[in-house]
From TrEMBL:
Assigned keywords, A-Z: Dioxygenase, Oxidoreductase
ChrR-like cupin domain segment(s): 11-110
UniProt keyword Oxidoreductase present: yes
Coiled-coil blocks: none
Protein's name according to its UniProt entry: Quercetin dioxygenase-like cupin family protein
Species this chain originates from: Chitinophaga dinghuensis
Domain of life: Bacteria
InterPro entries per the UniProt record, alphabetical: ChrR-like_cupin_dom, RmlC-like_jellyroll, RmlC_Cupin_sf
GO molecular function annotations of the record: dioxygenase activity
Short name of one Pfam family: Cupin_7
Length: 118
């Protein structure tokens, strides 16, 4: 384990938003910043997602659950409106899509890779 606290700080304001692309699929209107990359799993487990107005992430589930905190804007998850300051924990296997009618910035903690559903 590294003992320098600076090794664990991510200066997100100095990191560019990247288009969200997973397994070769580009999700139009959704952008990502990695906050915590896990070397062992080879993926980011804590991210920021920015949704442009009208952007949608498809129906999916998280084998190990997920946590969402709304930093800005609004998002709709399985019919529930989440607004700035709202927090949502979805348990393992919970199925849902995410839609933002007016745009949003969300903090996600995702312990395992998402699985897109038909």
């Amino acid at each position: 384990m590294k003992t320098d606290i600076h090794s664990y700080i991510t200066k997100s304001r100095h990191t560019a938003w990247e288009p969200l692309v997973e397994k070769g699929i580009h999700y139009t209107g959704i952008f990502v910043k990695s906050l915590r990359y896990d070397e062992a799993s080879g993926r980011s487990k804590t991210i920021l997602l920015k949704f442009e107005a009208g952007a949608k992430y498809p129906y999916h589930h998280h084998p190990a659950g997920e946590e969402i905190f709304v930093l800005h804007g609004e998002a709709i998850v399985e019919g529930a409106l989440l607004q700035e300051g709202d927090y949502l924990y979805t348990p393992p296997g919970f199925k849902h899509a995410v839609y933002s009618p007016n745009g949003a910035t969300l903090l996600f903690v995702v312990p395992e890779e998402v699985e897109i559903l038909p």
